[in-house]
Amino acid sequence: MPQQAQALEAAVLAARIILESSGETYRAEETAQRMLKAFGYPGADILAFPTGFVLSVPSGAQPADSRVLRIRNRAINLKMINQVNDISRRSENGQLDASQALAALQALATIQPPGVALQVAAFSIAAGAFALMAGGGGLEFVVAALCGAAVQSMLMFFQRRQLPGMLAHLLSGALVSALSILSIRALGGDQEPIITGVIMPLLPGLAMTNAIRDTLRGDLLSGLARGMEALLLAAMLAAGAAIVLALMQGGSA
Amino acid sequence: MNVLLQCVGCMTATVFFGVLLRQPRNTHLFTALIGLNGYLVFLLMGQGTYAYLVAGLLVGLLCELTARIRQMAATSFLISAIIPLVPGLGLYRTMLYFVQNNYDQAMTAGADTLAAIMALSLALTIATAVFNGIRIPIRDDHPPAP
Fold first, then answer.
1. CA distance A227 to A237
2. Quick check: A17 and A10 in contact, CB under 8 A?
3. A123: chain B residues, CB-CB within 8 Å
4. Are both A8 and A105 inside the same structural domain?
5. Domains of chain B by residue range
6. With an 8 Å Cβ cutoff, is B92 touching chain A?
């Protein structure tokens, strides 16, 4: 592969991995630009959105070489963002050339995400701990952890089947309420810490934070898109939980 | 005793939320400590809107600083470190009061929650803006327009 093609591929892959791991759009833009500059193409320009990007590298007298990539699947993976960050920094320092950077990024892109069991366990312990913070005791910890495990299993099923995230949040909200009300009827305990505990990890904190960071960098479109995403996800979650609460408690809890 | 339990809950929640976000392994200790710090400041300041602002600012600045020192993306610290402050309880109460047709209390709880979220976003905005101001720009090498 000629050097320019490799440099372009590496930049495209870096931007793609960042956006697919829910990184900020300015990070995708800057990473691609810094890498291309390090490989000797300083005039490259990129325009990224949470849902895709356009990248173009001017090549002398010929028409600019450009790529358009649509980002369809996004998951949260902070580790991946940091690893791309690392590769881009090493390219900038001259430790990696275009082909080495491309190889490193390709190796990164093929890493399988961690197992379902770990994610379910992490969610359930986090949910239990949030229940403790919301004033729960041992019983609330256990119930919230179990509800959390169920919700995360459902979320991961949705993700694997590539079903819409909005629907997943609506149903998770509903599942949280239903499970916690049923378990309280069976075992007793306080409803407030349980539902709060399970809802906390579901709140769109990353979307919100990224909305702020993108907006601050002047990426107004990305900021708006992310803010909208955060708002909708939170509304879906609350609506799902509220519908089930209303149905099961008849508005008279 | 109760506060101690909450602090243990806070650190556990932060760490495992970080695992859920697939945070790099060497960041969990930092986020747990920063998260606990923020939460303690929040508790000491009486859990009002200003407490959200100050605690959020502390968390935001500490996270950005740690990220700069460790040369990592700031988001890998921010999200799990700020999560103990996120008003999930207020959100739940707002929802519950609405469902119970208890609109007065729903409005009060809703306004409190919204104020808390806005205070947190403002705090993070300030923290990020402070650190954005002192980083090296890269967009200085565009070729002159033909």
1. 15
2. no
3. 16, 20
4. yes
5. 11-86+120-132
6. yes
Q: Are residues A152 and A200 in the same domain?
A: yes
Of residues A124, A129, A168, the one with CA closest to residue A146: A124
* Structure confidence by residue, pLDDT tens digits, A169-207: 999 999 999 998 888 888 877 888 898 999 999 988 888
ipTM summary value: 0.85
Mean pLDDT of B44-63: 92
- Domain boundary residue, one of A109, A125, A142: A109
Decide if B26 touches A, using CB distance below 8 A: no
pLDDT beneath 70, residues of chain A: 1, 61, 250-253
**A231 contacts chain B (CB < 8 A):** no
List beta partners, residue A54.
A47, A68
The whole-angstrom separation of Cα B73 and Cα A228 is 23
Q: What is the 3-state secondary structure (H, E, C) of A167-201?
A: HHHHHHHHHHHHHHHHHHHHHCCCHHHHHHHHHHH
Among candidate residues A60, A86, A109, the one where a domain is terminated: A109
What is the number of CB-based contacts under 8 A between chain A and chain B? 163
Contact B84, B14 (CB under 8 A): yes
Residues of B with Cβ-Cβ distance to A45 under 8 angstroms? 142
**Do residue A100 and residue A195 come from a single domain?**
no
Nearest CB among A79, A200, A210 relative to B24 is that of: A79
Q: Tell me, yes or no, whether A149 and A72 share the same domain.
A: no
pTM of structure:
0.85
For B128, the closest chain A residue by CA position comes to A213
Contact B119, B56 (CB under 8 A): yes
Which residues numbered 104-143 in A keep a CB inside 8 Å of some CB on B? 113-114, 118-119, 122-123, 125-126, 128-134
Enclosing domain of residue A75:
3-109
Between chains, do A114 and B22 touch, taking CB under 8 Å as contact? yes
Count of domains in chain A? 2
Q: Say what the pLDDT of residue A41 is.
A: 83
